[in-house]
Amino acid sequence: MSIRLMTPPRICALIALMAIALYAVAIGDRVPFSDVPRTLWQPNPASFDQIYVHFSLLPRILVALLAGGALAFAGAIFQQLLKNPLAEPSTLGILSGAQLAITLLSLSAVTVTVGQREIAGLAGGLAAVTIVAGLAKKSNFAPMTLLLCGMVISFSAGSASVILALFHHEYLRGVFIWGSGSLIQNDYSNAIALASRMIVLIPLLLLFYRPLTIISLDEAHARGLGLSPAGLRAAVLFISTLLSATVVARVGVIAFVGLAATSLARMAGARTLRQRLLWGTLLGSALLLLADGLVLVGAPVIGEVPTGTVTAIAGALLMLVLIKNVPHSIDHANTDVLAYGTSPVGGRHVLAGCLVIAIAIAGFSLTEQLTVSGVDPSVLFAGRWPRVLTSASAGAMLAIAGAVTQAVTRNPMASPEGLGISGGAGLGIIAAFFAGGMVSPLLPLAGGISGAVIAFAIILIVARGKSYAPGPVLLSGIAISALATAMISLIVASGDPRASYILAWTMGPTFRATSIVAIIATMLVLIGLAISPLFRRSLEVLPLGDSTALSLGIDPARTRMMLLLFAASLTGVATMIVGPLSFVGMMAPHIARVAGSRRPASLPLTAAAIGATLMIASDWLGRAADFPYEIPAGVIAAFIGGPYFLWVIRSQGRYASRS
Questions:
Q1: What is the pTM of this model?
Q2: InterPro entries recorded for this chain (predicted)?
Q3: pLDDT digits (tens, 9 = 90+) for 385-395
């Protein structure tokens, strides 16, 4: 039966019945059916199974219902307030910000109480939503600006959390599993705490029901009635963030529940705010209960995994399905943020400047500490030049792939990282690693290229029905990136002994680079630079649209496939070197374009020089910042790229203006 033919009550009842059936199986494995009533109300102290059901499974059910409902209610409020059907705590960066703050607190204190976690989660969530709202305010809270800022904040906060887990893996493993959204309970304390806070916060938000209804229709009319849009936003954002942070502090990050619940409610016919709040909240409870039931039933086979990881995977897949229903304002969001006027410097000058800077940093990296450490120069040079050359090659490959990706998708904000291509390549490499280890370097290379091709192909398939509009393309990339991150979190939280190696690799370490890797990477970059001029005409014509390309004798589908393979191959190789965390593929073409290098013939070359410079600098900074310990180059590049793009959005204020 189609979702559109089902009413919200029917969908909610169907999901709830499936969840109840799964929990019935989990409970039935522990106690006989005849003993269930006694187990629920007064368990036998001598029966471990009855104690487990009463003090673990029953509170787990309550926590799932309360947490899912709270996140869905907060998501409906965010969507109404920001006029964005895809807004929710995870897409706005609130959950990642709260998780990072709680992780930092766990490292700074010997013991951390739940109350302290809630305060830290609130501080982190408020910091994230303040940054997102502050940047989006200049564009009148345009949908794509909100989503883009939320993506960058989530990406940066998530990267910081993962690198903390990398440096403190044994100490933070429990925190990492909890942060992935584990609903395992030992008593009713979390259920009572969530219920008590929801009893206060949800009625408090309901007091803003009429103002939210009015402000969503016409802000000018709202001001005429004495309402302050800025004050309303601040108050509602604060209370909604407090509600979301409470869930994070109690059970960790449960992503996409609010988005899935409200989207299903809307698709089933819940049009008014009242209907979305009611049925969205009930659907959120039912969906999280269903996800946790799946985790419980599957635990004997695959082991206990965090429920939040399941919701992230399912939510990312659902997001890909729902993209065809995104509104017109998101479809045709303005993407001039990367296409402003050119700089008088010129592309050739930028190219020359980048080469000078790259050579200077590389030279300093190769020769520093010679006099202090007394190391033989030949030994130091032999250890340093492979990583410098490898970093430069990876940055150049990502930059070229980014320039091609932006042309293929007609989206100047696109990049291998932002579109999930790097994440897909990372998943492919991880799959190859688990399948055959590192017996041959060709196996992870093939896995990386295959993963990148599949990720990019999914994006093109999903966005094809939307004429490759920038909004759906970017949303597809966000979904795939979230899926890749969730899968990596699942592996790390699984306790597999290979997880530490995988976690270290995802950070983009260049210290493992060898001379053979450096030479091969350099050869591939040179091949890529030699091939890119062959696509000059295609890169010029594709951004003009499929009809124009056909009239000029270019087959758009076949051309996109060739460019897809080209960009995916470069991305797969670069991801093997520096991991999937980086903004170089997005940043380098943008800097090149702003500097004046707009022609398809010169853009890849200039972008490659900028990308190489960025990665060499990131490698050096990562090694020098906390010497003798090293921060992976991929993380440094991500931390540079995140604030850079937030600054670009803030300074321009034109991205994704409402249509």
A1: 0.79
A2: ABC_BtuC-like (IPR037294), ABC_transptr_permease_BtuC (IPR000522)
A3: 788 888 888 88
